[in-house]
Amino acid sequence: MSTPGEEPQEQTPPAPSSPPIPGSYGEISPGVPRYGQYAPAGWELPQEVKDAQAGANLPPALAYPGPPVSQSGIASPGGAQLAPPARVRMACRLIVAAGIMQALSVLVLLVVLLVPAAKAPVLDVLQETLAASPELAAVYSDAALLDTILFLGFVLSIVMTASYFLLARAIRKGSNGARITALVLALFSLLLLGQLNPVAIVQIVLGLVAVFLLYRSPAKEFFLAHKARKGL
């Protein structure tokens, strides 16, 4: 309303807001630079933006699903025992086969010790074998001494049988010490290769093939992964 003598003043309408530039982005949050703008020196995200980002982060276990993988590429689901590759499993089977053959020798010696009728053929075979060595033939002709030798051979066969199975079990679990032990025993058996019976020769060949498999890829990486996992 205007007083007499005054001309009414026209109100200037507000200037229309400029239309958004195509391709530009609005303000993300108060105090946050727009997309494509450089933040001033010393600028930091507002606290509410930091809180929102922290709440949106996922824990590492959910961000990267899947079983953990060792440096050798062998997965271990849930951090469980590393699965042995096919070469390691085959080597363990060969060692177990040699152990079964040794167990059969234990049964044979047990029968010889307990059944007197079975001892006579063994004594005949020993005397024929040692015919070129009269001193040894005289030793085996003593019944009491022969029983002692057979008993010691029986105990030794039991120990060797247990060693085969324990060695195969430790190798399957990734024990590098068991693998080295198998290598040492295989090399030592080569020294006796020409002085043993055919059954023992087959056992030695099985052990040599098993060691050959254990020192080739991917068996090597399997034992290295276990060694690194134990921090040795």
Write the layout of secondary structure elements.
Blueprint: H1 47-56, H2 60-63, H3 86-114, H4 116-129, H5 134-140, H6 143-172, H7 176-190, H8 198-214, H9 219-230
Structural summary, described in words:
The protein is mostly helical and 232 residues long. 59% of the residues lie in helices and 0% in strands. It has nine helices and no strands. Helix 6 (143-172) packs across helix 7 (176-190). It is rod-shaped and about 105 Å long.
Order of helices and strands: HHHHHHHHH
Shape: rod-shaped
Distance between the termini: 95 Å
The value of Rg in angstroms is 41 Å
* Unreliable spans: 58-73, 75-79
Main sheet overview:
none
Tally of individual helices:
9
**Care to count the β-strands?**
0
Short description:
The protein has 232 residues and is mostly helical.
Keywords, separated by commas or semicolons:
232 residues, mainly alpha, 59% helix, 0% strand
